[in-house]
């Protein structure tokens, strides 16, 4: 309860619900927006299985869109994938870098589509002065070990929509609304038992809550440190002619430095050389082109008759192949070299990264 209150006050959102994991938060978000059979939910092909699984287990059909050079969902491909059945879009702010929320919100509002912000890798990040997760309709984050702050495993759902909040509360606690949540509601009728439905058990434990509550107080310093080192490296190499940097809003969390090269082959070679210099290569939290992975390729479910892929449902004949549904994603992501940046990094660590990049550039290009 204390942690949820801290988030509400810090982020300026009306409701916050702590849950057992980031995946649990996504499941609760699908329940909150009432996604189900007959609905389509658009998401970037480049993401994590939690987003896909939450949509599928709600009975809705996942629809994949390409990413752009921000490594987030391409607003224009999102727009192309909209149909009459589109209920929501999941926006993943990959590795702390904000997606193009102005365009995404414009498109979503014009088509009456719900915007779910996945801030699992971007908690505390901002977009044009606004906290990520407070721009769309509902948001989630994760406190798993590789995230911005952690309690080992945990998650959070936050929103300004009271009806979404109370549905998420019910889903995370076997259909019930306990007094601590009822007391937050303006419309107390929403807590009436007659509106109950079968939910799951995704409550966050008190030990997790105490731990993440303490970590949350450190979030500003964590972001300040990561952003300082991130900015210093970018500034040092701003005039180089060999690579560019990922373009995102200044509210980027700074947890990963992304260097863009002309081709995948060049990026792979540069990455290999940096690793040989002892630089940790790769983002702190992995994503993949889900369309190339199982169980997405097989559309397998816990029971084959369930929606959305069971016989007679919308996804019965769904085929997921990256070259068809997300033809740009692999080449875009493959052209980047990523270097993780941690909150305990020192100026000496940053110097090591700068020296290594300079050494590799000299070896490969001079």
Could you provide a short overview of the structure?
With 366 residues, this protein is an alpha/beta fold.
Question: What does this protein look like?
Answer:
There is one protein chain. With 366 residues, the chain is an alpha/beta fold. Helices cover 37% and strands 16% of the residues. It is built from twelve helices and 14 strands. The strands form four sheets. Strands 1-10-9-6-5-2-4 form a seven-stranded mixed beta sheet, with helices on both faces. Strands 11-12-14 form a three-stranded antiparallel beta sheet. Helix 2 (22-32) packs parallel to helix 3. The radius of gyration is 21 Å and the shape is globular. The mean pLDDT is 96.
Strand residues, percent? 15-25%
Question: Which strand order does the major sheet show?
Answer: 1-10-9-6-5-2-4
Number of strands: 14
The span between the termini is 58 Å
Rg over C-alpha atoms, rounded to the nearest angstrom: 21 Å
**Which outline best applies?**
globular
Overall residue-averaged pLDDT value: 96
Query: Topology as H/E string?
Result: HEHEEHEHEHEEEEEHHHEEHEHHEH
Report the total helices: 12
Tell me roughly what share of residues is in helical segments: 25-40%
Largest sheet: 7 strands, mixed
List its salient traits.
single chain, 16% strand, alpha/beta, 7-stranded mixed β-sheet, 3-stranded antiparallel β-sheet, 12 helices, 366 residues
């Amino acid at each position: 309860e204390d942690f949820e209150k801290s988030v509400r006050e810090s982020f300026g959102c009306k409701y916050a619900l702590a849950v057992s994991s980031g995946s649990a938060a996504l499941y609760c978000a699908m329940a909150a927006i009432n996604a189900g059979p007959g609905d389509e939910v658009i998401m970037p092909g480049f993401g994590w299985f939690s987003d896909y699984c939450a949509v599928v287990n709600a009975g809705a059909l996942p629809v994949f869109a390409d990413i752009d050079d921000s490594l987030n969902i391409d607003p224009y491909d999102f727009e192309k994938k909209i149909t009459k059945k589109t209920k929501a879009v999941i926006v993943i702010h990959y590795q702390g870098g904000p997606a193009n929320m102005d365009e995404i919100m414009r498109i979503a509002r014009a088509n009456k589509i719900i915007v779910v912000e996945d801030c699992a890798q971007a908690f505390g990040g901002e977009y044009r002065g606004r906290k990520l997760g407070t721009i769309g309709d509902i948001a989630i984050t994760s406190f798993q070990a590789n995230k911005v702050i952690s309690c080992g495993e945990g998650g959070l759902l936050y929103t300004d929509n009271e009806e979404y909040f109370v549905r998420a509360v019910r889903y995370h606690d076997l259909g019930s609304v306990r007094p601590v949540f009822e007391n937050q509601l303006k419309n107390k009728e929403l807590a009436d038992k007659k509106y109950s439905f079968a939910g799951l058990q995704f409550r966050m434990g008190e030990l997790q809550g105490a731990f993440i509550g303490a970590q949350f107080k450190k979030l500003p310093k964590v972001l300040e440190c990561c952003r300082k080192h991130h900015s210093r490296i970018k500034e040092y190499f701003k005039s180089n002619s060999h690579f560019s940097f990922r373009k995102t809003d200044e509210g980027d969390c700074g947890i990963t430095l992304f260097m863009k090269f002309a081709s995948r082959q060049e990026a792979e070679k540069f990455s290999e050389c940096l690793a040989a210099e002892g630089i940790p290569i790769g983002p702190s939290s992995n994503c993949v082109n889900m369309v190339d992975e199982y169980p997405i390729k097989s559309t397998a479910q816990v029971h084959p008759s369930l929606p959305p892929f069971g016989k007679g449902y919308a996804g019965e004949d769904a085929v997921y192949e990256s070259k068809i549904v997300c033809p740009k994603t692999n080449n875009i992501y493959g052209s980047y070299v990523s270097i993780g940046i941690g909150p305990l990094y020192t100026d000496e660590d940053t110097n090591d990264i700068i020296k290594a990049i300079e050494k590799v550039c000299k070896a490969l290009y001079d």
